[in-house]
## 1
Amino acid sequence: MVAVSVPGEVMSAVHEDSGRTLSDSDREVWRTFVNGGWALLAAVNAGLSTRGVTQTDFRVLEALGDARERSISELSDTVHIGVSTMSRQVGRLVDDGSLERVENHADGRQRFVRITDHGRDVLAGYVRIRDDLICRLVIDQLTPVEFRTLGEAFRKIGDRIADSAIDGPIGSAD
């Protein structure tokens, strides 16, 4: 195991590589995936930002849109950003009235956050913008089967990453 420090992030442990390598054809598919993924993310971010929406604001509101209260730590895990960054983001969204802090009755030292009615209105606007972008950039470019296959592939990837945190390092023998 190797300790890795990324500026602005908590030290994390990275497991030694397993020695596996990609074939030339796998490497080409991977490059296509990465280039397409970054291009899509950049296009969605640009489409949202030209309308005054940040991807992080959208993700935080969307994560809280299910009416559940969440701790900063839980929200941070859900949105995949650091706790300190999430804390600042939540503070900003509380200030603009999109979120509110609420007591944790089980543990008075911890507070939860939840979306407000104003935040739900803001989220609904963000969802309309995002849905239009995703329809034009992704769904209209794929067949329904390709789109479902893409979703299933990412579900498997997400599940594997989530399982690896519990079962041990990715790349370890299953």
Note: The chain is about 60% helix and 10% strand.
## 2
Amino acid sequence: MPAAGAALVVVVAMTYFSDEPLRRHLEGSMNRSLTGYSVSVGHAHLNMRRMNDLMKACGKFDVTSGLFSFFCQLEVKDVMIDGYIRPLFRDLKVYEARQDAEENIFRKLYEQLVGGLAKLLENHKGGEVATKTRVAGKLGNVRTNTLELVLRLFENAFLSATLPGFDKELARISGVRKPPGKTAK
């Protein structure tokens, strides 16, 4: 059994939204009695077009282009979980007349509305839509705060970007750097 507070590193290989296998490190620590642990995971630059089945199932729209990144850090102690999730969308394009030519007028309007909302919520310095929300509660009954998520979307778009910390965390966890030409301030 590892010593209390010893680092625990797990390498996970999986395939999702891509034909290429993905390897990620889950880093954390575990106490001697196994009543607590923490985990951090992140991934950058998933092609959102490959996520269209998910987008259609959850939001009833598809995307023509864009990149999705996320970072998650969670701590579990006894039966309680606490942490946060940070999603980020970059270069998101929802509506394209050629791709959506056969859709009915209401579907076209809906996708234009979703695309317009995404454009409105972009941080004007970096062109990204980002937020951060807390995840907390008992295992099996974990909650997020929707109001916090929405308020942080507006904060990122109009007040201050959540991106500098996001990029540092992703680089630390995954070794992934931002694509050239996109700099968060």
Note: The radius of gyration is 18 Å.
